[in-house]
TrEMBL record:
UniProt domain Cytochrome c: residue ranges: 27-128
Name of this chain's protein: C-type cytochrome
Matching Pfam families: Cytochrom_C
Biological source species: Pseudomonas rustica
Domain of life: Bacteria
InterPro entries named among the record's database cross-references: Cyt_c-like_dom, Cyt_c-like_dom_sf, Cyt_c_1A/1B
Keywords: Electron transport, Heme, Iron, Metal-binding, Signal, Transport
Signal peptide: 1-22
């Protein structure tokens, strides 16, 4: 196989894989919205410019540094965590917040189901949460 054919085949495979992940995430987004509303929405908002909640606004949380949303009073533990929130780190946090960030003010016990955690992450990555 020529290098050009290999590169095209690899790119096509990668594009198909990314499309499959995006499709899975899109399907999980509505389930994630339901879980977010029942499990997370008590303390967190995702609509832009909503303040005054017990937890920080999670609109645009993907790519944000931990403890960095202006105007929110984070625990020293969360400010010191030094993580940039990505799908994997958010999933770790919502598995068991106190274990992931010892000393966090977040009173949530954690979301046991891996599928539910992935759905919440998909929701946070979706247009609905932006």
């Amino acid at each position: 196989m020529s290098l050009l054919k290999f590169a095209c085949a690899s790119l096509f495979s990668l594009t198909l894989a990314q499309a499959a992940v995006a499709a899975d995430c899109a399907a999980d987004s509505s389930h994630g919205a339901q879980i977010f509303n029942t499990e997370c929405g008590v303390c967190h908002a995702v609509k832009k410019d909503v303040t005054g909640m017990m937890g920080p606004n999670l609109n645009g949380v993907i790519g944000r540094k931990s403890g960095s949303l202006a105007g929110f009073s984070y625990s020293q533990a969360m400010r010191s965590k030094d993580v940039t929130w990505q799908a994997e780190t958010i999933a770790e946090l919502i598995t068991q917040p106190q274990a992931y960030v010892p000393g966090t003010y977040m009173p949530y016990m954690g979301l046991a189901s891996k599928d539910d955690r992935e759905a919440v992450v998909c929701f946070l990555k979706s247009k609905e949460a932006l």
